[in-house]
Input
Amino acid sequence: MSRGSPALTAARKEEIIEACARLYETMSFKEITIKEIGAATSFTRTSIYNYFETKEEIFLALLQREYELWVDTMNTVMAEKVSMTRDELAQTMARTLTDRPRLLRLLSMNLYDMEANTRPERLAEFKVAYGSSLDAVTRMVKKYIPEMVEAERQQFLYAFFPFIYGIYPYTSVTEKQKTAMSQAKVPYVYQTAYDLTYTCLKKLLNAKEA
Output
């Protein structure tokens, strides 16, 4: 790959995103800095600024990749499954989403501030991936519940997509949070991300277990 070639640029971006992803496994957004991301790559920290201007741009690119992987999974399901009951669809959709814990964790972050610190062209790239996820979910519902009319599908999307932003906080409660809720006498019943998502989807899709 020649210096400055599209292939090299793509490879460098992917290396930066992957370095961020590895750090995010054990660190929080607040703890991770561009310096730390740079130290986890094969090139200098200052080189990162040739591809991303802010830490927020890197995290948004990581979230973009997670959306794209989720869409790939949904497309695979639609290619393999000819038909499903509403309950089977609820189970399958819950699985495709909750099999991506990094996506759920990223979605729990303050995306408003992340987008505010991202250049318009980078934000547009992210929005394409987000739009693709909306389209993939819509196509799944159309394929497996063809009797659902447009207005019902829109209501489903407007309820389901805001819901997924809260999956991680509700299912990944720390011991400190549990102690605080206990002291405040706030009841907490643990649910897995899958169970919570499946329950929501079952209600939204008006699904009945076979």
